[in-house]
């Protein structure tokens, strides 16, 4: 069961935890300038009534907005907006494989998904053999559909899973989940690599970055149980608008009596 930061069970709707819906709505309004910098967000009670959610859900949504750097809590003032609404900053928090697909971001895939044959350059990028066939899907991701995309993505799917192209635009969610749904496969591992580099020219145009300006590339390989890739993606972000956050919690190993109790050094 999903839980909020204070340990309370998270309210869940049809599209996931309800606090994510509250975050998405308030973040879009901050970006559009509904709440200018220095002004206060509505009170917790007002947000509870507006979104028809619990106070715990509202508090988790406000915590997420604070983590994004959009607001801060001030004694006696409430929750205050920190930054101008016109500039987007994308913050991706990852705690699990499912979190790699940010539900607060709108994804759009081009309708001309097509089978391609990997040349030598692409084979190096994908770690495959020249001549291998892949389904290529191009897409963009948005915090606000009225603003430029925060991410441009290239997706490559092995030919044997290319049938998922028929579901693009008809089913929501990440492509790897469609592969699991249609083909009965399970993604068990994701390799991820971040690099800073000038993006391809077509990507630079979509992100509205200057020629040779540095962008962030995130390459992900989604692997099946047998180690074969089910999907490889290249995600590009404008460096000045990207921040990556990961929370890892160490699980304490249970005590095993069979190991015995370590001996203490004897005193002289």
SSE layout and pairings?
Elements: E1 12-13, E2 16-17, H1 18-32, H2 44-51, H3 55-67, E3 71-74, E4 78-81, E5 90-94, E6 106-109, E7 114-117, H4 120-126, E8 133-142, E9 151-158, H5 175-183, E10 187-197, H6 201-207, E11 215-224, E12 229-238, E13 242-246
Parallel strand pairs: 5-13
Antiparallel strand pairs: 1-2, 3-4, 6-8, 7-8, 8-9, 9-12, 10-11, 11-12
Describe the structure.
The protein has helices spanning 18-32, 44-51, 55-67, 120-126, 175-183, 201-207; strands spanning 12-13, 16-17, 71-74, 78-81, 90-94, 106-109, 114-117, 133-142, 151-158, 187-197, 215-224, 229-238, 242-246. The chain is 22% helix and 29% strand. The radius of gyration is 22 Å and the shape is globular. The protein folds into 2 domains: 12-81, Orthogonal Bundle (Arc Repressor Mutant, subunit A), CATH 1.10.10; 92-246, 3-Layer(aba) Sandwich (Chorismate lyase). Helix 1 crosses helix 3 (55-67). It is α+β, with helices and mostly antiparallel strands and 268 residues long. Strands 6, 7, 8, 9, 10, 11 and 12 form a 7-stranded antiparallel sheet that branches. It has a two-stranded antiparallel sheet with strand order 1-2. Residues 258-262 have low confidence and may be disordered. The protein is built from 6 helices and 13 strands. The longest helix is centred in the N-terminal third of the chain and has 15 residues, at 18-32. The termini are far apart.
């Amino acid at each position: 069961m999903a839980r909020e930061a204070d340990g309370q069970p998270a309210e869940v709707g049809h599209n996931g935890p309800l606090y994510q819906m509250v975050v998405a709505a308030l973040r879009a309004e901050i970006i559009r300038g509904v709440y200018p910098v220095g002004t206060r967000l509505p009170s917790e009670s007002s947000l509870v009534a507006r979104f028809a959610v619990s106070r715990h859900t509202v508090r988790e949504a406000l915590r997420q907005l604070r983590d994004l750097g959009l607001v801060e809590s001030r004694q006696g003032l409430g929750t205050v907006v920190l930054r101008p609404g016109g500039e987007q900053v994308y913050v991706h928090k990852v705690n699990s494989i499912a979190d790699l697909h940010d539900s607060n971001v709108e994804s759009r895939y081009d309708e001309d998904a097509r089978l391609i044959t990997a040349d030598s350059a692409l084979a190096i990028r994908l770690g495959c053999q020249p001549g291998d066939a892949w389904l290529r899907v191009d897409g963009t991701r948005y915090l606000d559909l009225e603003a430029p995309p925060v991410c441009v993505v290239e997706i490559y799917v092995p030919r044997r899973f290319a049938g998922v192209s028929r579901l693009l635009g008809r089913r929501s969610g990440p492509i790897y989940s469609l592969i699991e749904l249609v083909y009965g496969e399970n993604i068990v591992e994701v390799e991820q690599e971040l690099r800073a580099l000038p993006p391809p020219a077509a990507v630079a145009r979509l992100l509205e970055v200057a020629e040779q300006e540095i962008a962030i590339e995130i390459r992900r390989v989604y692997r099946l149980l047998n180690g074969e890739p089910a999907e490889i993606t290249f995600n590009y972000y404008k460096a000045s608008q990207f921040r990556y956050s990961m929370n890892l919690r160490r699980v304490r190993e249970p005590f095993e009596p069979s190991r015995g109790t370590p001996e203490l050094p004897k005193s002289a």
